[in-house]
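Lab meeting, item 3. Inverse folding demo.
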């Protein structure tokens, strides 16, 4: 029975996820920049911990939402955390499968459980508690994680053993990247031919080429020139790198995934670590000498 839930990583998506956890469970949060944890507690309740170890010692289950698996391992695989039998680590980071298996094995030696549970649906989905969550792990631990995941997720799918959640997420992210750059190139070319973006999108979104990128991201962020920063391009590039490793290791062809990695890496190099993922389209606009409007 999970009553006390710790949450580590109050970033762009972690903070709205943690808000739902704190609304349902007795919660304790930790964030590297302590001011963010303090302001979270003021707004949403719960307790702020001084260290990640304090969170683990207190909680029945701990949720992590950090940039990569490296930070998860650095913070959670420490004897000072004092993991106990029956405790559960729910990793909502978009991480890599091999690290998930290593963390899962490390915790299993201490009697604790682990599921990788990356999320999809963006900051907007986190705010409304309607994220899609792909869970990798032992079925018993996946069932135990469900009440916690259900506070911020609307669709929760157990996809396989530990690491499978991260694997599915990485493939999804490669598809997102391919859609961003393919749609950006096509719409830039159409703009140069005098076709307004809205007219092109009206057609594409009633046709077989439509995607979340053409239906939502480009109309709401590119055509409006709003460019909100909700999901860093650097994180998308990290995700596509995980997908490329995964596809290569599986012995599948990797031309499309490899191209997606080249495109995200190039855009990240041009735009820096803080740019949003949709801003990758700015690189196409600059090279084409046109704005998608
Ligand atoms: P952010 O960059 O906004 O936040 C990262 C969080 O991790 C912050 O709380 C940051 O703390 C903390 N952090 C960074 N480095 C360290 C470190 N070395 N030690 C301890 N804490 C650290 O990322 P997001 O919230 O956007 O993303 C988190 C995860 O969720 C990523 O894996 C991402 O790919 C995934 N994701 C994000 C989505 C989105 O729309 N944003 C959508 C789906 C998945 P501090 O406040 O001190 O900087």
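The presenter then showed the designed sequence:
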């Amino acid at each position: 029975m999970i009553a006390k839930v710790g949450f580590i990583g109050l970033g762009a998506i972690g903070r709205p996820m943690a808000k739902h956890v704190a609304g349902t469970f007795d919660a304790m949060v930790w964030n590297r920049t302590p001011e963010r944890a303090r302001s979270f507690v003021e707004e949403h309740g719960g307790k702020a911990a001084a260290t990640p170890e304090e969170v683990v010692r207190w909680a029945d289950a701990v949720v992590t939402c950090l940039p990569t698996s490296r930070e998860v391992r650095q913070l959670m695989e420490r004897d000072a955390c004092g993991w106990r039998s029956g405790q559960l680590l729910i990793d909502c980071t978009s991480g890599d499968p091999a690290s998930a298996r290593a963390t899962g094995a490390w915790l299993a030696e201490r009697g604790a459980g682990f599921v990788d549970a990356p999320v999809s649906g963006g900051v907007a989905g986190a705010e409304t508690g309607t994220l899609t969550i792909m869970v990798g792990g032992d079925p018993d631990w996946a069932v135990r994680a469900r009440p916690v995941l259900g506070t911020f997720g609307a669709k929760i799918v157990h996809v396989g053993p530990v690491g499978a959640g991260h694997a599915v997420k990485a493939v999804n992210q490669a598809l997102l990247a391919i859609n961003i750059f393919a749609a950006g190139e096509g719409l830039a070319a159409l703009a140069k031919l005098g076709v307004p973006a809205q007219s092109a999108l009206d057609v594409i979104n009633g046709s077989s080429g439509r995607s979340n990128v053409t239906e939502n991201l480009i109309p709401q962020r590119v055509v409006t020139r709003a460019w909100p920063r909700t999901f860093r391009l650097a994180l998308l590039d990290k995700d596509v790198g995980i997908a490329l490793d995964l596809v290569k290791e599986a012995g599948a062809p990797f031309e499309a995934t490899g191209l997606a990695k080249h495109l995200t890496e190039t855009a990240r190099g041009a735009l820096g670590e803080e740019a949003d993922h949709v801003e990758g389209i700015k690189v196409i606009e600059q090279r084409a000498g046109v704005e998608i409007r």
